[in-house]
Design brief:
The protein is α+β, with helices and mostly antiparallel strands and 148 residues long. It contains four helices and eight strands; from the N terminus they run βααβββαβαβββ. The chain has a single domain, classed as Aminopeptidase (3-Layer(aba) Sandwich), CATH 3.40.630.30. The N and C termini lie far apart (31 Å).
Length: 148
């Protein structure tokens, strides 16, 4: 049985761009049908990125937080879902954001991921909306309720 060990690292966009893009392309563009033009933006260059890698160094998950405190582009490749990778990525983003004073934190969660973010101290704000053809919900975090 293959090992399910993984590592979470804060990474530089320019140095790890190919790994980060490959994960996001697999999850968002191929699997979820997000148009390429909507996936790639100018925020990547200035955002803080985290990368999950397996024991062989393969990219298995990623997430980012922008300068204004928006968490996004959270993606875990299919075979690694429900194994704690997403929680580890989010926990690392939250720790780093709080240490850097990036508060308040917010995100636009896909409807299917709302429960995940609720478990990490986020709450729903406003009405659901469509983004990239997928139902989303704005969520915000009260830093006093953070589990990070």
């Amino acid at each position: 049985m293959p090992t399910r060990d993984f590592t979470i690292s804060q990474v530089d966009w320019e140095q790890c761009k190919s790994l980060l893009r490959a994960i996001r392309e697999s999850v968002f563009i191929v699997e979820q049908g997000v148009p390429k033009a909507l996936e790639w933006d100018d925020e990547d260059a200035s955002a803080l990125h985290v990368l999950a890698t397996d024991s062989d160094g393969n990219g298995i998950g990623t997430g980012r937080i922008t300068q204004v405190g928006q968490i996004g582009r959270m993606a875990v490749v299919a075979e690694w879902r429900n194994l704690g990778v997403g929680s580890a990525l989010l926990t690392q983003l939250l720790r780093t954001a709080h240490a850097d004073g990036r508060n308040p934190l917010f995100l636009n969660a896909q409807k299917a991921a709302i429960a995940f973010y609720l478990r990490h101290g986020f709450h729903c704000v406003g009405e659901e909306f469509m983004e990239a053809g997928i139902v989303h919900q704005r969520m915000e975090q009260d830093p006093r309720r953070s589990r990070a």
